[in-house]
Hints:
With 142 residues, this protein is mainly α. It has seven helices and no strands. Helix 1 runs parallel beside helix 3 (43-64), helix 2 (23-38) packs antiparallel against helix 3 and helix 6 crosses helix 7. The longest helix has 26 residues, at 103-128. The protein is globular and about 45 Å long.
Amino acid sequence: MRVVEFAAGIALGLGTITRRFGFLHELAALALLTLSLAVPAPAALKAALCFLPSAAALIVVYSRSDGPISKFLSWWPLVLLGDASFSLYMVHYPLARYFGRGVIQLFGAIFLSVAMLVWFERPVQAWLLNKPVRFGSVVRMR
């Protein structure tokens, strides 16, 4: 069910990087939405596809904008938390299961996810890409 959303994310990413959004992209998005609503599919898939155009529009607008909301969302602590979101996804359940749920556990999970990003994920990514890395670096990899 998430393959279509994943493919749309890749297309948006490539379009944002190359700055090539045009009539063909809009036409393809409209065709995909029309096709997805016409083809028999589970209700959950159709609901996800109906949400996709508005999510895509938000991504495009905020990725190409320099307004106050885009600037706030580009603030380095928020970018760091966004980068650490996969680690948070990985650690939140075990922490909640063994230590319970609460504000202290929430901040502990956030701290652990950022620590995992900075001292594990980025060094491993750099090693896999064969680039030198400073351990503990908060600077984004590109």
